[in-house]
Design a protein that fits this description.
Blueprint (H helix, E strand, L loop, with lengths): L4 H11 L6 H20 L4 H21 L3 H24 L5 H30 L6 H28 L4 H4 L8 H17 L1 H13 L3 H27 L2
């Protein structure tokens, strides 16, 4: 697709989705903006970009497994997420959106989330844990905390299917509450800043370097539990209004 960057930028502003978090806006979106322009110039299809995103994700763990290179792990996980942020806008600019594309994007998103914690368990956690707990307890706690995070991830899919009209309110956007509900929603919005995929990849990468991954896992499990509980409470009350 022959297009100047100035013309592309106009289209990008028209078709981009609003950033969900501060990290998303400052880091991921800016990288994705450049990548999307390159993909358009090279006529790369949106679904292929989605697949490339997953391949980059797997590449990050190859570096972690074979050379324990945390720098490349960080770079490739961030690139993977930036690719994931660019496939949708490329699809909308080229009028190539499809139900299959949405399905493929969602499938790879959730597969990446599941594999992220499974691969970290086998490649890093079992080899580097230094907390004085029995191995059986460590395994149980790891999968318990991971399951809470994955349950939150699955909840996002279910909300998009059954409560699509309430997605922005649940994430803390378009807040219309007052008083105590307003404060709670602002807290949820703040917690969302940490659970964004790009932010999580960044924080987890740092935790591997400082060898505090297990504590970060507990941190993310706690955030996931709080947000999930708030989602269930809000959706229950919304359904019974």
């Amino acid at each position: 697709m022959k297009i100047s960057f100035s013309n592309y930028y106009v289209l990008y502003k028209k078709y981009e989705r609003p950033p969900s978090t501060f990290f998303h806006r400052i880091i991921s979106k800016n990288i994705a903006k450049i990548l999307a322009y390159i993909f358009l110039r090279l006529n790369i299809k949106p679904n292929f970009i989605t697949i490339l995103s997953f391949l980059l994700f797997l590449t990050s763990f190859i570096f972690l497994y074979y050379s324990y290179n945390l720098f490349f792990f960080l770079i490739f996980t961030q690139l993977s997420y930036a690719f994931d942020c660019s496939d949708g806008v490329v699809a909308r600019i080229t009028n190539a959106t499809s139900r299959f594309g949405g399905y493929l994007d969602l499938l790879i998103d959730r597969a990446s989330t599941i594999l992220f914690f499974i691969l970290l368990y086998f490649i890093y956690f079992k080899k580097n844990i230094d907390i004085i707990v029995s191995n059986s307890d460590i395994d149980f706690l790891y999968f318990l905390f991971s399951s809470i995070i994955l349950l939150y991830s699955i909840s996002g899919i279910l909300i998009s299917l059954f409560f699509k009209e309430k997605q922005s309110t649940i994430s803390g956007n378009n807040i219309k509450f007052t008083g105590f509900k307003y404060i709670v929603t602002k807290i949820i919005k703040f917690l969302y800043e940490f659970i964004d995929t790009g932010t999580m990849y960044f924080i987890v990468s740092l935790s591997l370097y400082f060898n505090v991954y297990f504590y970060i896992l507990i941190f993310y499990a706690s955030i996931s539990f709080i947000i999930l509980s708030a989602q269930i409470f809000y959706l229950y009350n919304y359904s019974h209004d």
